[in-house]
């Protein structure tokens, strides 16, 4: 059985010069989008075994909304400060620390790091042609090699990118 990695960018957050970037909350639209993705995951029976989130307020709030929507007892959110503005190479070390028995890992974080990781793992030629691969609250799914201790460029197989706007209304009631 192959392992999957899911990359979820945080929901929409208002920009404010009066607030530290780390402390920016989710906007109402961001909360709604995170819930749509979470409900869609639950309806598709796509339930992660392991959730790792940036501790930044907007990312952690996104992770909590998704966790609540999928409603699985005992599925905790692991906060990792290295998911916040440390570059995609650091994200690879976070993945290496995920338990081997976790077959579906959800990483909740920020651009440009998530997009850079997606491009590295899947290869730019294997991804949709888009100026922004991961808009807010977008979820990318990849099939990964079993060994997560070292990732070569192009070592993953791209499955899909799902955005809240792409979901039919009946999937998120």
Number of helices: 4
Reading off the top of the CATH hierarchy, the class is best stated as Alpha Beta
Mean pLDDT: 92
Strand fraction:
15-25%
Give the topology string: H per helix, E per strand.
EHEHEHEHEE
Give the assembly state of these chains.
single chain
Query: Roughly what percent helix?
Result: 25-40%
The CATH superfamily name is Phosphoglycerate mutase-like
Number of strands: 6
Largest beta sheet: strand ordering: 3-2-4-1-5-6
Give the CATH architecture.
3-Layer(aba) Sandwich
Cα(first) to Cα(last) distance is 31 Å
Overall number of domains: 1
Kindly provide the radius of gyration, computed on alpha-carbon positions and rounded to a whole number of angstroms: 15 Å
Task: Could you tell me the CATH topology label.
Answer: Rossmann fold
Given helix and strand content, the structural type is: alpha/beta
What general form does the structure show? globular
Unreliable spans: none
Largest sheet: 6 strands, mixed
Notes on the protein architecture:
With 173 residues, the chain is α/β, with parallel strands linked by helices. The chain has a single domain (3-10, 24-172), classed as Rossmann fold (3-Layer(aba) Sandwich), CATH 3.40.50.1240. It has four helices and six strands. The protein has helices at 28-43, 57-70, 88-96, 113-122; strands at residues 3-9, 50-53, 77-79, 104-109, 139-144, 157-162. The protein has a six-stranded mixed beta sheet with strand order 3-2-4-1-5-6, with helices on both faces. β2 (50-53), α2 (57-70) and β3 (77-79) form a beta-alpha-beta unit. The mean pLDDT is 92.
